[in-house]
Write a sequence for this structure.
């Protein structure tokens, strides 16, 4: 399973490196969305508004939806699914590999957006660094959940619009926990209780994906 996961993750990341969709489309979209959030706050409130962590996660959510669709589009290319079936790859390994690749892409994008939050929203650099581990856990949970919901909606008509409808209720607790943890890091509050929510969600989505990803792929 681990070997399959590494093979699938490597394949997805190599495709992303060659296509450069993340670099030239997804990341610029996230930066522009963050810039618009800064303009909406206005120069007088950008540094003092408590909305900074929430805006960061809102933009991250939009980017995550784009990247989930991108991850599933790779699997919809001609012959990919039949090749996976012919090779007899472990569905649990495929799930872990795709979730790992998506998590790596989200971590890279999250670093860029976090730097943008510091520059555009004037978020405190020290608080952003303190929140970095909790952000990594939250993005990992989003990647695991997104891989599941991406497989659930893949191949159907209107999958790009169906994905947000199904995934947003599941993403909401993760976004709330991430925002509260980020806010606590900025204002010196306790982080651990929000870390627990994100960590438990990460483990739960990984467990469900390992058990059910094969069923979702066949549906």
């Amino acid at each position: 399973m681990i070997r399959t996961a590494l093979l699938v993750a490597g394949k997805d990341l190599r495709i992303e490196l060659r296509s450069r969709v993340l670099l030239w489309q997804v990341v610029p979209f996230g930066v522009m969305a963050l810039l618009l959030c800064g303009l909406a706050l206005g120069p007088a409130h950008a540094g003092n508004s408590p909305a900074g962590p929430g805006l960061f996660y809102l933009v991250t959510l939009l980017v995550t939806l784009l990247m989930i669709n991108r991850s599933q589009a790779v699997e919809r290319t001609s012959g990919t699914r039949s090749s996976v079936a012919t090779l007899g790859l472990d569905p649990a390994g495929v799930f872990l590999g795709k979730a790992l690749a998506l998590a790596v892409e989200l971590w890279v994008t999250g670093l860029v957006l976090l730097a943008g939050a510091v520059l555009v929203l004037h978020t405190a650099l020290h608080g952003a660094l303190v929140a970095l581990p909790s952000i990594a856990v939250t993005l990992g949970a989003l990647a695991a959940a997104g891989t599941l919901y991406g497989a659930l909606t893949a191949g159907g008509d209107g999958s790009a619009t169906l994905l947000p409808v199904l995934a947003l209720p599941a993403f909401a607790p993760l976004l709330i926990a991430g925002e509260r943890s980020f806010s606590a890091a900025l204002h010196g509050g306790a982080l651990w209780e929000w870390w627990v929510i994100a960590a438990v969600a990460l483990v739960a989505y990984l467990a469900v994906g390992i058990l059910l990803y094969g069923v979702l792929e066949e549906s």
Q: What stands out?
A: The first helix runs from residue 2 to 19. The chain is about 85% helix and 0% strand.
